[in-house]
Design a protein that fits this description.
By secondary structure, this protein is an alpha+beta fold. Helix content is 26%, strand content 26%. It is built from 17 helices and 42 strands. The strands form eleven sheets. Strands 1-2-8-9-10-11-18-15-14-13 form a ten-stranded antiparallel beta sheet. A six-stranded mixed beta sheet has the order 19-37-38-42-39-40. It has a five-stranded antiparallel beta sheet with strand order 7-6-12-17-16. The structure holds 1-deoxynojirimycin (NOJ).
Length: 809
């Protein structure tokens, strides 16, 4: 079964059957104003922060057929009443002649035909603006003139998204609406909780004369709310009640009579949902966006942003599914994770329990510094603001208030209040930014540490470099009985929560990778003392890892507080962990023999045809001594599930040992685009990576969940572009070191790097997986495989011939 197709030329995925297994969504705007729109027109929109300033009430747990946050109704006279239907299919579920949801870059366009009426609605947030536009075009495709009414509707939530669900007394007493009569019969329906009446109002308006409106849900649905969203009784009346809600569940519905539409004729209504300090403040831009030309221009600006963003890296490989992911959907998902971290999706509900994650955002940044380096730098700075003076980091923060907390570690009495890995990721993010931009001055920028005095003034400040050094020093001193780093509450795997004193091999290897980065940086800065010091730290940890953690055929993953290994053949469950093997290769701690042996163990014990499992065998039963992982049944999420975020790390490790065929096999088997024609078992969107797929120990092997907001986006993009295709930014220039399937004849990449455009053509005449024989830039041979920095805005032709000896990195 398939539900749609990829339209690469228009950079869209087009859903043609609305009955997808779960809602498939798309993001509009940014965290500053925006959210997501589902494929049947439901919308969750927020301004600045989903927990503290949410605008529409979208309840993902309701059945897919229900109204969620917004919809559009059309109606025409039928008998004594009206035929009312939604061109979004939901919530009226009328039979359609055509349904298409175009999932575009920053917009969703729903095109449908019902009862001789073609509707095309483009939903988007103009760049940098605080309004959701629904640009509605109605065409009469019947052979008779038709009189059509158009009624867009939104339902509001209290801005405090959690309170909306926890206090059904205070909330309805405070929610109010009023109408503002604007020129030309247009109306602005204003809504606010009483306390924000003078400071922060939501508004809903259009560019068409409104004959009546409704702001009270009970009146709109009718019959004391025994009317339904599928058949709102209010729409059976010639006009809505023009009621300005004094309390209760507030909505905004605007009734427009389009009058008679001739066969073939189109009429256009543009609705706007926004938030401002006051109507007066909102008016200038509201009026601007009533003008069709301004809306068209804003839509073109959005397209231009995406043209520019995507142009930074385009590929042409022999694999069409890889091409469409790398050219469109994967970098797009990276932009979304950069904006929303793990905050707002169908699965991560943005109610405040989570916020922007320190480790999550640090990893997200790594994939977008090549596209939008300034935004990357700003996000890195925010993260550094929540690093503590001892070098460790707070786990997550609220982007509006910048208040941070220790995440789930707060929930367990007596548990360590830090995560062993969080702070180390910043070294990877900062160096990724520096290699891309060479803005070395960033290292001298002074940023406070998180701790504040009574007045809320930061107690200590340090340069970016100082922050990185403290991150390293924290781990260097935070060691357990084998001299390996302590786990803290958890490391990257949130769900293994061992008693204080446990050691983490993941942290040891991440520390190793962070050290490699800082050594490379220090070498570039010619800081010999730092190079020596950090190299000594590195050697020390490498030795400990190899002395204590090699289990014979793979590396162990943890030692608990009394020194018992987890992720060892001596265990009956959780014998081997994927991260336990990929990371010693990435850190360079694994010897060449151990690297290939450990990766072969992954292939034998963890690989399935739908992806690599995080660990095996799964735990079967709750064990408070292991923690969250044992709350899942075998095969789900971190407990033996295919946790996609960890797959690209194995891919990267395979490219390091030079096995391009296996790296690509791993890449392809999790490519969602390749699942389009058999998506029923997977269920989630084929145009983005999900976080998890049920593993083969689960009866529903192959079922995906938690799409969109996952570190998979960033790492699979890095794995594919920097490690498989091998186009890697370095301080000296652009390194080209592919590791591809041997049967590829080659591939092409266009990469913008430090303002020059490199048109790279890689040829693989000897059909090797790895190894570069020759590189020519504009026809001239260069030494080595690093194309020097030519950042002068010009375009260069780079020809790369693979073959010969495999070059180890
Ligand atoms: C999802 C979390 O957002 C991420 O921080 C964590 O590393 C993974 N789960 C694995 O537990």
């Amino acid at each position: 079964m398939k539900y749609g197709y990829f339209d690469d030329a228009n950079r869209e995925y087009v859903i043609t059957n609305p009955r997808t297994p779960v809602k498939w969504i798309n993001y509009v705007g940014t965290l500053a104003f925006g959210g997501f729109v589902d494929h049947t027109g439901g919308a969750l929109i927020c301004k600045g922060d989903p927990a503290l300033n949410r605008i529409t009430k979208y309840i993902p747990q309701l059945p897919d057929s229900d109204f969620k946050g917004s919809t559009l109704y059309l109606r025409f006279r039928q008998g004594n009443g009206y035929k009312v239907f939604s061109p979004y299919f939901v919530p009226t579920l009328d039979p359609y002649d055509l349904y298409e949801c175009h999932v575009g870059l920053g917009y969703t366009r729903i095109v449908s035909e019902f009862y001789g009426i073609r509707t095309e609605v483009t939903i988007f947030v103009p760049m940098g603006d605080s309004r959701l536009i629904s640009d509605i075009k109605i065409t009469n495709v019947s052979d008779q003139p038709m009189e059509i009414d158009v009624i867009p509707v939104v339902e509001y939530t209290h801005p405090d998204a959690l309170k909306q669900f926890t206090n059904a007394d205070w909330i309805p007493q405070t929610m109010q609406s009023e109408v503002y009569e604007d020129e030309g019969g247009m109306k602005i329906l204003v809504q606010y909780p009483f306390m924000y009446r003078e400071t922060r109002i939501n508004y809903f308006t259009s560019n068409y004369a409104v004959s009546s409106f409704e702001s009270d849900r009970e009146r709109f649905l009718g019959g004391s709310e025994y009317g339904t969203w599928a058949n709102p009784l209010g729409l059976q009346e010639p006009e809505l009640s023009n009621y300005e809600a004094l309390r209760g569940d507030n909505i905004a519905a605007l009734l427009h009579h389009l009058g008679e539409i001739q066969p073939g004729e189109t009429k256009r209504v543009i609705a706007q949902l926004g938030q401002e300090e006051s109507v007066e403040k909102a008016l200038p831009l509201v009026r601007k966006y009533r003008d069709e030309e301004n809306v068209d221009r804003a839509f073109r600006d959005l397209a231009r942003f995406w043209d520019d963003y995507l142009s930074k890296l385009q590929v042409e490989t022999p694999d069409p599914d890889m091409n469409r992911m790398l050219n469109i959907h994967n970098p797009r998902q990276c932009y979304i994770t950069k904006n929303w971290s793990r905050y707002l999706s169908l699965y991560q509900l943005g109610l405040g329990a989570r916020g922007m994650g320190f480790r999550d955002s640090a990893q997200d940044v790594m994939a977008i510094v090549s596209h939008i380096p300034d935004e990357g730098r700003e996000l890195i700075k925010k993260l550094l603001h929540i690093q503590k003076r001892d070098g460790s980091a707070m786990h997550q923060f609220n982007p509006l208030t910048m208040v941070a907390d220790e995440g789930d570690s707060r929930e367990i009495e007596g548990a360590p209040r830090y995560y062993g890995d969080d702070h180390l990721w910043i070294a990877l993010a900062v160096t990724a930014y520096l290699k891309e931009t060479r803005e070395i001055a960033f290292l001298d920028e002074v940023i406070p540490y998180y701790e504040k005095d009574k007045e809320g003034i930061p107690i200590e400040w340090g340069t970016v470099y100082d922050h990185m050094e403290r991150a390293i020093e924290f781990t260097r001193h935070d060691l357990g009985r084998h001299g390996l780093p302590l786990l803290g509450f958890a490391d990257w795997n949130d769900t293994v929560n061992l008693k204080a004193g446990a050691e983490s091999l993941f942290v040891a290897n991440l520390y190793g990778k962070a050290l490699l980065e800082i050594i490379e940086l220090a070498r570039h800065l010619r800081e010999t003392e730092s190079v020596e010091r950090y190299s000594a730290y590195y050697a020390e940890m490498k030795e400990r890892v190899n002395e204590h953690a090699w289990d014979g055929e793979w590396y162990v993953r943890y030692f608990d507080a009394d020194g018992t290994p987890l992720g060892s053949r001596s265990n009956t469950e959780g014998q081997i962990y994927a991260n336990g093997q990929s990371w010693p290769v990435i850190s360079g701690f694994a010897t060449p023999e151990r690297a290939t042996r450990a990766l072969d163990s992954v292939y034998q014990k963890l690989n399935t045809r739908k992806g690599i499992k995080l660990s095996a065998p799964a735990y079967n039963g709750f064990d408070p001594n292991k923690g969250g992982i044992t709350t899942y049944p075998p095969g789900a999420k971190e407990n033996g599930g295919i946790f996609l975020h960890a797959n690209p790390w194995v891919i990267i490790a395979e490219t390091i040992v030079g096995r391009g065929d296996r790296a690509f096999e791993y890449y392809s088997q999790i490519n969602p685009a390749a699942k389009n024609d058999r998506i029923d078992e997977f269920e989630c969107e084929p145009y983005v990576y999900p976080q998890n797929i049920l593993g083969d120990e689960h009866p529903q092997f192959g079922l995906a969940r938690n799409s969109w907001l996952t570190g998979t986006a960033s790492w699979i993009y890095q794995a594919a572009t920097q490690h498989i295709l091998g186009i890697m930014p370095t301080y000296e220039g652009l390194q080209i070191n592919p590791c591809i399937p041997a049967n590829w004849d080659g591939f092409r990449v266009t990469r913008v790097f430090r303002s020059a455009v490199y048109q790279i053509e890689v040829k693989n005449p000897d059909h090797v997986c790895k190894g570069v024989k020759a590189v020519k830039v504009d026809g001239k041979k260069i030494t080595g495989n690093i194309v020097p920095i030519l950042g002068d805005g010009k375009t260069y032709r780079v020809e790369v011939i693979m073959g010969g000896e495999v070059q180890e990195r």
